[in-house]
Design goal:
The protein is of the alpha/beta class. The protein has helices at residues 24-39, 59-69, 102-119, 132-135, 152-158, 161-179, 184-187, 214-226; strands spanning 2-7, 46-49, 73-80, 92-97, 123-129, 140-148. It has two domains: 2-179, Zn-dependent exopeptidases (Aminopeptidase), CATH 3.40.630.40; 201-236, no CATH class. It is globular.
Amino acid sequence: MKIILDAGHGYHTPGKRSPDGMQEYEFNRAVAHYAKPLLENYQNITVYFAHSDVQDVPLKERTNKANVLKANVYVAIHANAYGSTWNEANGIETYVYSTKPKEAVELAQKIQRNLVIATGLRDRGVKTADFHLLRETNMTAVLTECGFMTNREEAALLKSETYRKTCAEAIVKALADQYGFVLKTAANKSSGSSPSAQVKEGLYKVQAGAFKERKNAEELVHALKKLGYSPYIYFE
């Protein structure tokens, strides 16, 4: 499967930055570059970038490249903005083309759900738009907005390498779930435990989020319960 990762905009795109100067492309490219090796851990996956660190790539050039490569999936990664000054607009949203292609909607829903659960940010939903990247690609295409650069708290997250990795992992998990990716290591293992594996006593724990405000933790717990999980809040 051929996957196009598109870090929106470029280093020289006018505007497209937070009020305190963070360029959107800095965030977008970091997520794409974290996602690429994660995707390449799966069998039969080839990842291409639509963007470039050398120059700003026009939208038409990006979609032409994807179409010539006959890619199967196109994922555009962005950070959102409302105006150019600090404000309270917040949350995650994901877009598909206005005709709502079925596979794109399914993938967008998975990306949206995974990002919201992983980040704990507000769920703004899956939306439709007549964006060039969604309209002119011949393959399943989605565009995700991973938080607002014009929101002080979310802008701080967008600058964080931990948050960037979290977004990359959420997007990759959604793609793996949608298309049933198989890890390369799984192909080399027979059923059952590896002979060299050692059993360790204890518990393996997975943390879904960490918040300063209890209400944010409670919102994440509520979202996880709706998905069938049994989460709990632990205060340190």
